[in-house]
Amino acid sequence: MKKVFIGLGSNLDDPLSQLKKAIEYLKQHEMLNVINISNFYSSPPMGPQDQPDFINAVVEIATSLSAEQLLDELQKIERQQGRERKQHWGARTLDLDILLYGNKVINTERLIVPHRGISERNFVLYPLNDLVEKNFRISGLGKINELLAACPMTGITRLSEV
Known about the structure:
The protein has four helices and ten strands; from the N terminus they run βαβββαβββαββαβ. The strands form three sheets. Strands 1, 2, 3, 4, 5 and 10 form a six-stranded antiparallel β-sheet that branches. It is α+β, with helices and mostly antiparallel strands. It has a single domain (2-158), classed as 7,8-Dihydro-6-hydroxymethylpterin-pyrophosphokinase HPPK (Alpha-Beta Plaits). The chain is globular and about 35 Å long.
């Protein structure tokens, strides 16, 4: 079983409900064991600014699926929730990203792990930090507390209990 961290994001069609629905799909999947769920955060869009703010979270799971098999399952959940890939960094009902897959470094045509840009994205690092220990190390990037020090929480807001 691999310990995996999945980033979740949505800014369309009731984003909070979209994330909660996706988490339920993850919990019901026979090959996934949801271990923990971060707080939810609101953040401005990273790409075009003419779209609503995002709601983001991170889920920790254990799975025996390969990284590519997991990617297929996550994309299936995205499609079930109406994800359409129209514009890079555009608005979306649901975005599910494999942030970390154990300690593996993966660089294929379909998948890059650790997820590209993870060390500069506060909307990923802060929810991830909710789930890991202070000295947690991201392969090839360093300790999370060091990454957080270089990536302030500017622009994101932790939502109250949801």
